[in-house]
Predict the structure.
Amino acid sequence: MAILGYARVSTHGQVLDIQELQLRAEGCTKIYAEKESGISAKRPVLKQLLRDVRRGDIIIFAALDRLTREGPYRTLAILELITSRGATYRSLAEPWADTTTELGEVLAALVGYIARKTRQDIIRRTSAGRLRARAAGVKFGRRPKLSPQQQAQALSRRLAGERPEAIAPSFKVSASTIRRLKPKPS
């Protein structure tokens, strides 16, 4: 069993000293520290910690926002990964986020349930909203790079035998955009 710490600051101008002192005071034998944004997917030190964690280990972090700022679902996914490996975790700033105690386990499970339920509600509401918008004639996706008139002109030139590579610069688009143009069914 090891007591591992995780410390993070967002920019290279910030320092990790306070977090590292807190983690050492809690008995961390190894501290994984990095200077990366909490919303960044490129967090090599966090990834390494999650690879290194073993059954019986305790992971301590100064606060949940040090772990990630990618939102509650990513936070829960990281915490679930930790517990799925047989390890426990503890946040120094959020006493309820402490699976080293029975009460903490219950609270963490409750928060996980609430987050999953909230996520399901969000998915249900956004799906219903998309259906309403489609029914009202709202078009989704990117706007076309070419107006209908430009599409007709480019298609006419292509059907006349001009190469897409020659047409594309006059419309400031790629040749593949010209290749994708299809005649409108009559």
In short: The chain has a mean pLDDT of 89. The longest helix spans residues 102-135.
